[in-house]
């Protein structure tokens, strides 16, 4: 029997595969071919279900490891690396303990000391990075820690057996200890930066049903739902909960109560995925002039809705949080200070003064054009934050490079607001060095209110 085809049979097979995967024990290795054979479906159908299971966070596929049944990933633990992610980062090979790949580690310990001293630092949830020391491998597993063997060495059969029993991964990497420690540390640092980026899935309660209209409902149903909720905009979904339209009070004006909403609604409305940033959603809603955004999966099935007010509230909250981890933009801006004086002459507005360091140089030994443009946008953002207590989303920027800027030069960046309203701003930004004007930009941006 070929399960691939139209109708309910395909959907049933698809759901059957997902249910089967969810019933597997955490840590179980699985494959498309094995699932297809076990359930009597084609490999194409199994592959599609695998991809959905992976995007849902119930399986994980990693090079040199394969596909493993895992606990659903939690956004709250974004800053914590799993053992499986460590294996991918260091190009590691898994020898045992596959059931523990999705466990998170809270620290790593470098095994460059005597065993007794090493044990004082090893505890449950840590990762021991060590060379070919069998005794250390065994002790770490007994203490509840995973093991990463450097230098390409392999663990003993006894240690592999213990790793499987304790569900603690034992990995091997061809890199040396210093290199793998640096790679893991860099990845952990990057997670700190990502943690500050708020996603739609962080603010939408997907377990709470959204207020929706069904395809086939009438204007009367719309008015009733509007009175019950106080809202005037609702997604319209079909029998499989897929978003097929958006119905608003404007659409309903002047229409008889028995008119079907399918005839009045806006078809193929703008939607968003749960993993987009809140800032991206704010830009979409402002640009399109919409106050409610349906959140859908890749099949357009409705997961929830988010309002413009919820997005703005989230951005205000994020703007008040302390910085965690420095981005390249933060590093570029290090050393720049706000000033109201330019070349000894008092001017209205704010100027930002700083030095061009050797790390900012381009191929010809001058400051790179891309970095100079970034410094101008950084100055503009800080000026708007300090004077208007707002932020912006860049729409366009035209940059003029008058002449090269040498490294070690002292420069001033002066952003001036030509127009500024509640929704838009137009800025002129100048870069001055000791010889005068070096670069200039004209920028238009969409204003947002995160504070």
From TrEMBL:
Q: What InterPro entries does the entry give?
A: CBS_dom, CBS_dom_sf, Diverse_CBS-Domain, DRTGG, HotDog_dom_sf, Ser_kin/Pase_Hpr-like_N_sf, Thioestr_dom, WH-like_DNA-bd_sf
CBS domain: residues covered: 206-263, 265-323
Q: Give the superkingdom in one word.
A: Bacteria
Stated name of the protein:
Putative transcriptional regulator
The protein's matches in Pfam families, at most eight in alphabetical order, are given as: 4HBT, CBS, DRTGG
Q: Which CDD domains match?
A: CBS_pair_DRTGG_assoc, hot_dog
Q: Which UniProt keywords apply?
A: CBS domain
Natural source organism: Paenibacillus prosopidis
SMART domains, per this entry? CBS
